Amino acid sequence: MPQASLTRRALYEDVAEHLRQQIFGRQLEPGAWIDELQLCAELGISRTPLREALKVLAAEGLVTMKVRRGAYVTEMSEQDVREAYELLSLLESDAAARVAAQAEPAALARLQALHQELEAQIDQHDAFFRANEDFHMALLALEGNRWRQQIVNDLRRVMKLNRHHSLFKRGRLEESLQEHRELMQALMAGEAERTRSLMARHFANGLAATRGAPAQLSGGAKSA
C-alpha cells in the first residue's frame, strides 16, 4: 500500500482504515504487537500519520497502547465479551420493542428483505455474518435513536475482536436464523414485549455459544 495509492483525505485516516481492515481480517490477531517501523516501510509513510492512526484505533478500542512497549491489537477477556453482550442485549432489545410497537408494515419491508438475505446465506459464513449485522443495524436505524446507533456500532466493532464469536460455533448459524425468524414474526405482529424477550434471548444464546455456557445474561436479559 504505497503512499501514492492513498486517497486525498487525511493520511492518518487512510492508515487507520488499512489497519482496521487488517485487524478485522485477522492479519493482525488480537494480542499481536504492531510493528511501527515495518508498517511505515510497507506503507511508505512516516511515523507521525501512523501514530495518529493508532490513536484513532485506541479510541475505538481496537488497539491498546502500552507504556514503553508500543501498540497491541486489543484482546477481549471473558468479562469484556459478557459485558459487551449485556449492553447490546439491553440496547437492541429495547429498540426492537419500540420498532414492533411503532413501525408501519411498509417500514418493516427493509427488515424483511434483510431477513430473506439471511435465509439465502445460511451456507456462506462470511456473507451470513454481514447480513446479520446489516439486519441489526437496519432495525436500529428504523427505531431512529442516533445515540443508540452510535453506541451499538462501537460495541459491534470491538466485538469483532472476539476470538470465539458465537456464529463460529457449529450449528449456531442455524440457531441464529431460527431466532431471526421468530423475531420477524413478532415484529410483523406488532408484539413489542415478545419482540423484546426474543431479542434478549437471541443475545443470551449468542453469549452462551461463545463458551458453551448456559444461555443467561444479567440484568433481566435471560433465555426464554
UniProtKB/TrEMBL annotation:
Q: Could you tell me which SMART domains the record lists for this protein?
A: FCD (SM00895), HTH_GNTR (SM00345)
- Membrane-crossing residue ranges in chain numbering: none
Which Gene3D superfamilies does this one have? GntR ligand-binding domain-like (1.20.120.530), Winged helix-like DNA-binding domain superfamily/Winged helix DNA-binding domain (1.10.10.10)
Q: Which domain of life is it from?
A: Bacteria
Recorded hits in InterPro entries, A to Z, give: GntR_C, TF_FadR/GntR_C, Tscrpt_reg_HTH_GntR, WH-like_DNA-bd_sf, WH_DNA-bd_sf
Keyword check for Transcription regulation, yes or no.
Answer: yes
Q: Does the keyword section mention Transcription regulation?
A: yes
Keywords (A to Z) from UniProt:
DNA-binding, Transcription, Transcription regulation
Write down the Pfam families for this protein, in alphabetical order. FCD, GntR
Which residues does the UniProt record annotate as the domain HTH gntR-type? 9-76
Q: What is this protein called?
A: GntR family transcriptional regulator
This chain's source organism reads Roseateles aquae
